[in-house]
TrEMBL record:
One of its GO terms (biological process) is regulatory ncRNA-mediated post-transcriptional gene silencing. Signal peptide: none annotated. Keywords: ATP-binding, Helicase, Hydrolase, Nucleotide-binding. It holds the Pfam family AAA_12. Residues 330-393, 421-496 form the DNA2/NAM7 helicase helicase domain. GO terms for molecular function: helicase activity; nucleic acid binding. This is Helicase mov-10-B.2. It comes from the Eukaryota.
Length: 1315
């Protein structure tokens, strides 16, 4: 087979290898090879148009043997005597360049054919025994599935359909990633081939920019040309492309990329091959319990050793029947629990105890695979025993040097694939899941793989077909292990159709759900709960996601940031947490769908500077943001000031950890959380930090999500809230309302109540002393235990009476007025006489001046102590040609450009604000020179200045901010000849192709850096004093916050004490038996509400089905509702949903339906047929209450008449608490008389009377006639949507009935609306 065959499995690398070579000898050989290539192409010109010869004759005519090729080289050297070089070295270069294609010709003779690959894929020097089948994309099938038609019931066919849907979405995404090229494409001079170089914008997905991928170029008036990528240049952000010789290099071009189908084809093949082992993978059979932990590895804990022992069990321990592969083991490792360590130690033990074992270790990403390789090498595995298999199109420079020694490379240093015989000699092969397809292609189709053990790390992060790829190379009875965390980020699925059909559920998560469906434990599921990463306070933020199972075992090093919290937050704190509220504005660029938040970026940069000032290495810091645009912005800001912290999206940090993590959540618009609603993404972000976690975002918006709300609640309790947020806003809504009532004076003591309440007492109900706010806060014995932890705060209160007890407000710092006066009295900026003279001379010569202005503000969120400054820079270049030349010369350099002359730096006068700094800089240029083009990055400043220059009267701009500066400008408007140009801020000059635009971006970055230095360096004494005041204000806020915390805790203590006092009195009057009798015999006189004859014709659209809706209406007829909230024994008990659910079930002799997920993770409505079915579904007392609430709500929405009284309040009620439960439960505030009332009360009294907290988590033991369990047709989401459409009709009818009742027109006949 010809090595140049283009229908190969993957694409090889074809690069000009002179790039980056420093050695002169090697560079000379490359030059000789390039010249010899041109010599060969002139001597041998393949005649492809000839049809008289066969293919064999054509190859024979246009190829040379190695001897003939040597003769040609000698002839070439005779013509160019000065360019001598070794023939073998030159031959290696030409084969690597694919100028020559090597072909075996028998008897050890090699023939070399001169290739003609213009406009074709780069060939691959490898031979596969089982190439990938060509799965043809079937859009019609995808379209039918998208409409809900013809969805395959067979799981294999479903996987194929979803892969096609994902591929279609990938094609759509690539089609959107287009960019324009306005200049002819330059030739790539470092290769003898005719290759073109194209620069690629940053927004193009890196998955599309790979060697061998296709690229499409269209220019106006010419047909579209298809090219292939032969090399990637990361430093230049460019690709090297080969086009057909008919390519017309005439701009402008529209460039778009094609997709690489190889990953999709690999997954399709894996789905087909894995069909034979799918039954074993999905089996719920348990493993025979192994003997006591025999693992002697002292590096592992007990849970980790259990997994190690299970991995070493012989086949007999699994018991009959014999399986083709062993039943897979699942290792669930939450963050920091040592999952990777467990895998590495297990693999090491396996190959040590069994030298004949062949182990395949795979992971979804290259980063995870590299980590596994590095960790295994640390245990002493040498390159002759382990191979890190790389994709042959991967850049060598992107792989760590510690990993490269385990890779296989060709003569030119590119990654290569060993032959089958060499592969089978390695004990361990590490690769990505997709690269494992190379291994399957190296084995004949009819033969199985050769690996005895297959480990897939981060299996919960990969699609099911991707996870199946490494499993296809396992031999019979191989051990398979899937390791990961099902509560971290799952597979990235972009097709909505595939997501709706559960394609985002990984194989590990599906098997985990299947094995733990009936019980939380399974002998093949190993859960690690001891976490060794985060500080205990950080662990508390994400531990609720794991139901509180994680145990903190972090080392002392995770507590090293606690002493530094005083510098970070201005006060001592025992928790290394900072939640910084930032009410910034989210925005998008015109060419991007991603989001950024400029204000959050400034806050993050301020924290980074603080950390570096504390001598924290930048390598220990990570910055996470869910949006790529914010990520790029932060990278540019850090690059401008030389900060080398790791910055990336959440996906980049999965599996990684840092000593300090900063999170920028970006979103600020109410109701738009986007990615942030994904609890798995939130979990990954919160669990990366070891010693310190800083979250910057809009806390009010984040609190609308349950996961973020829990984390913010913990942060509030730990005193970790800060930022541009008032002290009151740091508290939850319910607590804040209590505090507002206190501060506003709504709180009244008994003495105040005497003015309008006759029986009010003036003494405390607990200690009989005079009742007052001071007494309740500082003196009352109720709450003495609470005050012990607030001793420091109470001492402050006693010393400073302004804090309390009568009006708790923050004190005003005594130095604030003086400091603000000093800032308003800052001196005017001074311009040098020489620079002014030089600028005026340039104007006299007819040269257009170009200025760069910018402002900077430190601590912008602290209004009283923020301080700002501005800078002005003059461009000394006289022409645009000079600017273009300098732009090219300094491209990619970190040196300062000498043509940028700093003219002026000064601190703002008056209000310290970033906008005032921007306007001050423009006014300074106008007053001192008054000529030229000013490049400004603030559109607001430009608009205000232009308004002032063009207004006839100051009244036109009187409503603008900083009107005093605009008035100064207006007075000199007739002598000012300036033009303001908007320039985009914080651009990366390396990504700008146009030299002139790049020059303006360099100038803006330069003036921005100067302004930042000026802001922190000018008048350092004042800056230091402002910082001290800012720290004092933070301490005062923290103290006031502690006072508020004390208020809230004492109020809760008094409320509980009052409730216990009432409960004691009630208990003395009524024993438990009397309470049960009172609830059982509760009778209600019929009130105002009477259920009218309901119209039931829309119940057929009920989400629960027509039968259950009709049963609900019939049951509601038997509820007798009172007019008030009185209950048994004169107490306001209300009624819980659990009681209503039991009454419904006893009345209808049926169990309520439940919602359960199917194998695809989609919610469906299930109907238990009896007690056994209800127990199998796990229907509990509490869930039955939830379901009856949903059923009542849905049914009431479909009946035009009211089936329950209006004005009922939902919330917690005390009915079950009074029957013996230890807590309140959700229900209604008004208690009706219900069917089967006595039976319900007796059943619940017996259940809650056991004293078990989880008693209501059991299944109600109700004896109903047994029926068959059923599952409703259609998904729960679809049934709800259908029901909501019918509810609109019911609401319309309800309004007509209400209008008629109020004296309106006669409602329409029912037949007019029910259709």
């Amino acid at each position: 087979m010809c090595i140049g065959d283009r229908d190969q499995h993957v694409k090889g690398q074809c690069k000009g290898k002179t790039e980056g070579l420093r050695d002169r000898l090697v560079a000379r050989v490359a030059r000789v090879a390039s010249a010899f290539a041109h010599f060969l192409q002139e001597v041998i010109k393949p005649d492809k148009c000839s049809t008289s010869s066969t293919e064999a004759e054509f190859e024979e005519k246009n190829s040379l043997t190695d001897v003939e090729l040597g003769d040609r080289f000698q002839e070439f050297c005779d013509l160019r005597i000065s360019e001598g070089a070794d023939f073998d070295e030159v031959l290696q270069w030409l084969v690597g360049w694919r100028v020559l294609i090597k072909k075996r010709s028998g008897y050890g003779i090699h023939r070399f054919m001169v290739s003609d690959l213009d406009g074709k894929k780069p060939p691959l020097d490898v031979h596969f025994l089982y190439p990938l089948p060509k799965y043809k994309l079937n859009p019609s099938m995808v379209q039918a599935v998208g409409k809900g038609q013809g969805i395959p019931m067979n799981r294999k066919d479903q996987q194929h359909a979803m892969l096609f849907a994902e591929e279609v979405e990938k094609i759509r995404e690539v089609c959107r990633e287009k960019f324009e090229v306005k200049k002819p494409l330059p030739l790539y001079k470092k290769s003898p081939r005719r290759l073109h170089k194209i620069r690629v914008p940053a927004f193009i997905s890196g998955q599309n920019v790979m060697i061998g991928n296709s690229l499409y170029v269209r220019s106006r008036g010419y047909p579209q040309h298809r090219g292939f990528i032969h090399a990637v240049c990361p430093k230049d952000s460019a690709v090297i492309v080969s086009f057909h010789p008919t390519f017309h290099n005439k701009p402008p071009f529209t460039v778009s990329f094609g997709i690489n189908r190889i990953p999709f084809l690999s997954k399709h093949r894996a789905v087909d091959l894995a069909e034979r082992i799918m039954a074993q993978l999905e089996s719920t059979k348990r493993m025979i319990q192994p003997p006591a932990a025999a693992g002697c590895d002292t590096h592992l804990n007990v849970q980790q050793k259990q997994f190690l022992d299970a991995s070493l069990l012989p086949l007999l321990m699994w018991g009959p029947p014999p399986f083709e592969t062993l039943l897979p083991l699942l290792l669930w490792g939450p963050p920091g629990t040592g999952k990777t360590t467990t895998l590495v130690r297990t693999i090491w033990t396996i190959i040590t105890k069994n030298p004949t074992a062949k182990v395949l270790v795979s992971a979804p990403s290259n980063a995870a695979a590299n980590l596994l390789c590095e960790r295994l090498s640390e245990l002493g595995i040498q390159p002759d025993r382990m191979l890190r298999l790389m994709g042959m199109s991967r850049e060598v420079a992107s792989v760590p040097m510690a990993v490269q020694r385990f890779t296989c490379k060709d003569a030119l240093g590119n990654f290569a694939l060993p032959d089958l015989e060499a592969l089978q000699k390695y004990q361990v092969i590490v690769c990505t899941c997709t690269t494992a397809s190379y291994l399957r292609s190296s084995v004949p189709k009819e033969k199985p793989g050769w690996f005895s053990h297959v480990f897939v790390d981060e299996a919960a992060q990969s699609m099911e077909p991707e996870t199946l790829i490494p499993l296809t190379v396992a031999k019979a009875q191989a051990l398979v292990c899937l390791a990961g965390d099902v509560k971290q980020l799952g597979p990235l699925v972009k097709s909505k159709l595939a997501t709706d059909h559960g394609f985002q559920v990984s194989l590990m998560e599906r098997l985990f759900t299947r094995l733990t469906k009936d019980t939380k434990e399974h002998s093949r599921v190993f859960v690690l709960t001891d976490t060794y990463r985060s500080h205990p306070s950080i662990l508390k933020l994400y531990n609720p996601i794991y139901d509180g199972q994680l145990q903190c075992c972090s080392p002392k090093s995770s507590r090293d940031m606690v002493p530094l919290m005083r510098h970070m937050m201005g006060g001592a704190s025992g928790h290394p947490l900072i939640f910084h509220h930032c009410d910034g504005k989210e925005s998008q660029n015109e060419d991007s769908t991603s989001w950024q938040n400029i204000k959050e970026g400034e806050v993050v940069m301020n924290y980074l500077r603080k950390l570096l000032e504390l001598k924290i290495p930048a390598e220990d810091i990570g910055v996470i943001t869910p949006y790529q645009l914010q990520c790029e912005r932060l990278k540019n800001l850090c690059q401008a000031v030389g900060i080398k912290a790791k910055i990336g999206t959440t996906e980049l940090f999965q599996g990684d950890e840092k000593r300090i993590i900063l999170i920028s959540t970006v979103r600020s618009q109410q109701g738009s959380l986007g990615f942030l609603t994904n609890y798995k993404r939130t979990n990954v972000a919160l669990s990366r930090a070891k010693s310190l976690l800083l979250v910057v975002g809009n806390m009010k918006l984040l609190s609308t999500d349950q996961t973020w709300s829990n984390a913010i609640g913990f942060a509030k309790n730990m005193g970790a809230m800060t930022g541009d947020i008032g002290v009151l806003r740091k508290f939850q809504d319910s607590k804040r309302w209590l505090l507002v009532r206190e501060i506003a004076g709504a709180y009244q003591t008994a003495n105040q109540k005497q003015k309008w309440l006759d029986n009010a007492a003036g003494t405390c109900e607990f200690c009989q002393k005079e009742d007052s706010r001071r007494h309740r806060l500082l003196e009352c014995p109720i709450g003495s235990e609470v005050r012990e932890s607030f001793s420091a705060v109470i001492d402050d209160i006693l010393e400073d009476e302004s804090l309390l007890p009568d009006f708790p407000v923050i004190t005003r710092h005594p130095d604030l007025e003086a400091l603000q006066l000093m800032q308003f009295a800052s001196p005017q900026p001074v311009w040098g006489q020489a620079i002014c003279t030089h600028a005026r001379n340039m104007v006299d010569e007819g040269i257009t001046l170009h200025w760069f202005t910018d402002g900077s503000c430190l601590h912008p969120t602290c209004r009283h102590t923020r301080h700002s400054a501005f800078a002005v820079v003059l461009d000394l270049c006289k022409t645009d040609d000079e600017r273009r030349a300098i732009s090219e010369q300094y491209r990619g350099s970190t040196l300062s450009i000498p043509t940028f002359q700093v003219v002026c730096t000064a601190r703002c006068q008056g209000e310290q604000d970033i906008l005032r700094a921007e306007v001050s800089a423009v006014v300074s240029v106008a007053e001192n020179v008054g000529h030229g083009v000013i490049h400004v990055d603030s559109q607001v400043a430009i608009s205000n200045v232009q308004l002032a220059l063009t207004s006839l009267h100051p009244a036109a701009f009187a409503g603008c901010e900083h009107v005093d500066l605009l008035l100064r400008l207006w007075k000199i408007r007739h002598g000012v000849h300036i033009q303001l140009v908007k320039i985009k801020s914080h651009q990366d000059p390396g990504l700008i192709d146009d030299p002139l635009l790049r020059y303006w971006a360099l100038g803006n970055n330069h003036v921005d850096a100067v302004a930042q230095v000026a802001c922190s360096s000018l008048n350092t004494a004042l800056v230091q004093q402002l910082d001290l005041v800012r720290q004092d204000l933070k301490v005062d806020k923290k103290r006031l916050e502690a006072v508020y915390d004390l208020h809230i805790l004492l109020q809760e203590v008094r409320r509980l004490a009052t409730a216990n006092k009432e409960s004691e009195i009630s208990t003395k009057l009524h024993d438990h038996r009397a309470l049960c009798a009172a609830f059982s015999n509760w009778t209600v006189q019929p009130g105002v509400f009477q259920l009218q004859e309901p119209d039931l014709r829309l119940l057929g659209s009920s989400a629960f089905g027509e039968e259950f809706a009709r049963r609900t209406v019939e049951w509601s007829r038997h509820l007798i509702w009172p007019d008030d909230a009185s209950g048994p024994l004169g107490c306001n008990t209300g009624i819980t949903w659990v009681e209503l659910a039991l009454s419904w079930m006893l009345f209808n002799q049926l169990f309520l339906p439940v919602l359960r997920k199917d194998c695809l993770g989609i919610n469906r409505l299930c109907f238990p047929g009896g007690y056994d079915g209800a127990k199998q579904y796990g229907l509990s007392f509490l869930e039955s209450g939830t379901m009856v609430q949903k059923l009542l709500t849905n049914t009431a929405g479909l009946v035009p008449q009211e089936i329950m009284p209006s004005g009922l309040t939902h919330g917690k009620c005390s009915a079950l608490y009074r029957l013996g439960s230890c807590r309140f439960y959700q229900g209604l505030d008004r208690r009706p008389q219900i069917p089967f009332q006595a039976e319900v009360v007796q059943l619940l009294a017996a259940v809650v009377g056991t004293g078990r907290k989880e008693a209501l988590s059991d299944t109600p033991n109700l004896a109903f006639p047994a029926k068959q369990d059923q599952v409703a047709r259609g998904t729960w989401q679809f049934r709800l949507q259908t029901s909501s459409l019918a509810m609109k009709t019911a609401r319309k009818r309800r309004k007509e009935i209400i209008n008629f009742t109020a004296g309106g027109s006669q409602p329409k006949p029912k037949g007019d609306w029910s259709s």
